[in-house]
Amino acid sequence: MISLKLIYKILFVSILTIALVSCSDPWSDRETNDENLKLTLKEAILNNPETSKFAEALVKTGYDKVLASSLTYTVFVPTNDAMDQVPVSILNNTDNLVLFVSNHITPAIYSTVRDKASEKIIMYSNKYLTFSGTNTIGDATITTPDQYAKNGVFHIVNKPLTPKLNIWQYVNSVSSSSAMSKYLVSLTELNIYKADSIAKLVTAPGVYADSLSNSYLRNVYNLNNEKNSYTLFLMDDGSYTTEVDKLKPYLIKNNAARSDTYASYFTVRDMAFPKAYLPNELPNELTTRFGVKIPIDKTQIIGSPIVLSNGIIYRMKKMDVTLENRLLTKIIEGENNTSFFPSTSGNRATIFYRDRKDPANILYNDIAQYHRVTEGPNFFINYTASDMYSTKYKVYWRAINEQSNVFQQRLIVGSVFKADGTIDLTTSLMAFPYMGVDIKKYDEVYIGEFPLAQAGDINTISLVAAATTTIGNNSLTLDYLKFVPVIK
Amino acid sequence: MITTISTKTKKHTLLWAIALVFSLSSCSDFLDVVPEDKLVEEQVYRNVYDADAAVIGVYGKFMALAEKNVILNEMRADLMTTTRNSSPLLKEISEHNVSANNPYANPKDFYIVIQNCNDVLKNFDIMLAQKKFTQGEYDQRYSDIGAIRSWVYLQLGIHYGSVPYITEPIENLEDVKNISKFPRLSFNELLDKLVEFTENLPYKDLYSAESSMVITIDGYNTAKFFINKECLLGDLQLWKGNYLAAANHYKFVMETATRGGANTALYDTYRVKFAEVITHDDLAVGYVRYSEQDAKGLIDSNTQGWRSIFARDRDQLWNDEWIWSLPFENNFAPKNPFIKLFSNKNGDYLVKPSQSAIDLWNSQTQANNFPYDARGSKFTYKIVNGDPVIMKYLYSSEAVTSTVANTKGQWFLYRAAKLHLRYAEAANRNNQQKIAYAILNFGIKSAYQPDPIPTDVTNIQQTLLPFPYDFDARMGDFPNFRANWHRGAGIRGRAYMKAAGAIGDDMITTENNIIQEDALELAYEGSRWEDLVRIALRRNDPAFLADKVYDKLSKEGNSNASTVRTKLMNVQNWYLPFNWN
Question: Is residue B273 part of a domain?
Answer without folding.
Answer: yes
